[in-house]
Amino acid sequence: MTHPYFAGTDRPLVLAHRGFVPPDTTDVVENSFAAVAAAHAAGAVYVESDCHLTQDGIVVLFHDADLSRVIGDPRRLSEVRAQELEELMAARGGLITLEQALDAFPHVRFNIDVKADEAAAPAGAVVAAHAERVLITSFSDARRAAALGAAAAVRPDLLPATSAGSSRIVRVLAAVTTRSQKAAGRALAGLDALQVPERRGALRVVSPRLIEAAHRAGVEVHVWTVNDPADMRRLVAAGVDGIVTDRADLALSTFGQGPS
Is the peptide bond before 197 cis (omega within 30 degrees of 0)? Predict the structure, then answer.
């Protein structure tokens, strides 16, 4: 059965990568409250984001393990308390916690990439009550499983949707390469989506056989990070179900979605 996360929305899915930072904006950074609000205002139903845990145990939307790129502070995010991080982010679009994101944007569906081991269980517990509109993923399948386990402990009747981590993706690609439907079925079991780049260096990840195997197992294929409308159209024509993009405005316009 299709997870409620995917139900009742326009196709293809447009996932606003780390929210949406309008090109003419200078005081808004990715994964900020303002970036999520801008994605929502542009008409995005889906927001892709990342999470870490602060020193005092608050799950916040943030991609990097340290503050150097976004804030110019060399400290790791895990060394900073949430209140201080809020002050640091005040001039950059505002800090948003995972709990705030779910409460402030009740009609947005969140795709949450768990970036740190210590954030897995707290994030799972936070999203449990909103499982119908959250997808949990991570490059680490162990971290992803830990988050899902924490969610199940709070709400066993419905888990968040989930996308494969790196080790599962490798298994899927191996099965597709060997044309083994049984191996592909085993590798895709328990997943709702494959979220992958079109290519990884010289390796082509997204192929007709990958899309066919995923769809045979009832698993969606979402490709990141695609910012050119021509590439978006080409991938969707090939059977891809979702586009993860920094330019949610362009993607929504390309597919006739967003505000009328």
Answer: no
CA–CA gap between residue 41 and residue 256 (Å, rounded): 15
Segments making up each domain of the chain, as ranges: 4-254
Please pick, among 40, 63, 130, 222, the residue that the annotation labels catalytic.
Answer: 63
Query: Could you confirm whether 63 is annotated as catalytic?
Result: yes
For 151-210, write each residue's pLDDT tens digit: 999 999 999 999 999 999 999 999 999 999 999 999 999 999 999 999 999 999 999 999
Q: Distance between CA atoms of 138 and 168, rounded to whole angstroms?
A: 11
pLDDT digits (tens, 9 = 90+) for 52-77: 999 999 999 999 999 999 999 999 99
In this structure, what token pair is assigned to residue 199? Answer: 């290519």
130 included as an active-site residue: no
Q: What is the pTM of this model?
A: 0.97
Task: Please pick, among 3, 17, 40, 130, the residue that the annotation labels catalytic.
Answer: 17
CATH topology for 4-254 is TIM Barrel (3.20.20)
